[in-house]
Design brief:
Distance between the termini: 30 Å
Largest sheet: 8 strands, antiparallel, barrel
Helix content: under 10%
Oligomer: single chain
Strand content: over 45%
Radius of gyration: 17 Å
Order of helices and strands: HEEEEEEEEE
């Protein structure tokens, strides 16, 4: 995992130092993670770092790294056993393709490679599991000003849905 984070940091730094004009942004948000085959709903708080590169007046791309941790836990029942489940870590690497509808609204799609680590505990025992998956998402960014905006997005990873909202500040 350390190699993946290091490779992502190098790639992000290489993209950020390219000759394209870019706008650096930071974000903070909350997302809900739910799974199809398990009655489970968990929240994660995230922080992100992105850099937008304009292609033309309407289109841009934005590589982004998001990290997060769980916010609370949920109970899961499986074959009569009740377990508390919580998110320990969330890490996502994505590249947004942005289409600016007007001065306020931008629509985007993004492929994402993400890791989710969860821990379940029941009857004094504890087990953790993590894994990386490719997924995709779409969203809407609404700008309050040139620097201040909000993102609303939906992402899908195999049998997992992630719905989130984040505040974004651009430099």
């Amino acid at each position: 995992m350390k190699k993946s984070i290091f490779a992502a940091a190098i790639a992000f730094a290489a993209i950020s130092t390219s000759t394209f004009a870019s706008d650096l942004s930071v974000s903070g948000g909350i997302s809900n993670v739910s799974m199809d085959d398990i009655d489970l709903s968990l929240n994660v708080v995230t922080a992100g770092l992105g850099s937008t590169y304009d292609i033309n007046d309407s289109f841009s791309v934005m590589p982004e790294v998001r990290i997060g941790t769980g916010l609370g836990d949920d109970e899961m029942n499986w074959e009569g056993l009740t377990a508390d489940v919580e998110i320990d870590r969330f890490l996502a690497l994505s590249v947004r393709a942005n289409y600016q509808v007007n001065d306020k609204v931008t629509l985007y799609v993004q492929p994402t490679y993400a890791e989710l680590k969860v821990t379940a505990s029941a009857m004094g025992a504890e087990a953790s599991e993590s894994g990386w998956e490719f997924g995709g998402g779409l969203g809407l960014n609404y700008a309050f000003s040139k620097q201040s905006s909000v993102d609303v997005q939906y992402e899908r990873f195999s049998d997992t849905d992630v719905v989130g909202v984040a505040y974004r500040y651009s430099f």
